[in-house]
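Ligand: magnesium ion. Inputs:
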Amino acid sequence: MRLPSVLPAHIAIIMDGNGRWASRRGLPRKAGHAVGSENFRAIATFCRDIGVQYLTVYALSTENAERRPADEVGGIYDLLRKYLAESLEKMARDRIRLKFFGDLSGLPEDIQALAARTEEVSRQYEGFQANICLRYGGRDEILRAARRIGDGGEAAFGALLDTAGIPDPDLCIRTGGEQRLSNFLLWQLAYAELYFTKTLWPGFSKKELCSILTEYSRRNRRYGGV
Ligand code: IPE
Ligand code: IPE
Ligand code: MG
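Predicted complex:
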């Protein structure tokens, strides 16, 4: 796999298509979420290895948590418990530091505790960081910051967001074929390069990521300039 010389420091991914991936194989939707969560580990490891600094993924939106059947949301929470327990166990070896964005207060308490513990252990290490958006909504994040901003400017506002201290994503990839943001990082994606692929998340490969990175390296970012 050939990598371009210019890489994004921060990649954001809307990991969509787990349910369809499973349905097409005659499997329950939760099987798609399970393979999807394994694929997250594989893609995060790859990003770490190639020198990307941050990977921020959309794992569960506030809307998903509120509008999907309790059975599906419960299944996702079970996968999360398993994922976090494994991540804690492997942190020293894998060096995938984790942070969580979103309104975690709506999550089951044991998951809140596991997430807090994972962040605490992650702080002992340096290097690549993966941010997992859980019960996250871009509008909700902006509202939470707006309640606290007073009359500060853009930078002060950014420092009140879940992403405080982290540079905005350079590239946002959405798998699953839909071409929308679905309430993801509305503030932070202001100047991100967008890339939409029909590949369903459980089937998204390192090879496809490499070809997206090549396309990214050829784009001309102008930030409003000439
Ligand atoms: C993305 O996959 C994961 C979550 C939203 C939790 P979906 O579950 O939305 O899968 P599709 O889009 O229905 O295939
Ligand atoms: C966005 O996917 C949320 C995640 C991938 C976690 P959705 O499947 O919820 O988005 P919509 O409903 O198709 O816009
Ligand atoms: Mg979807």
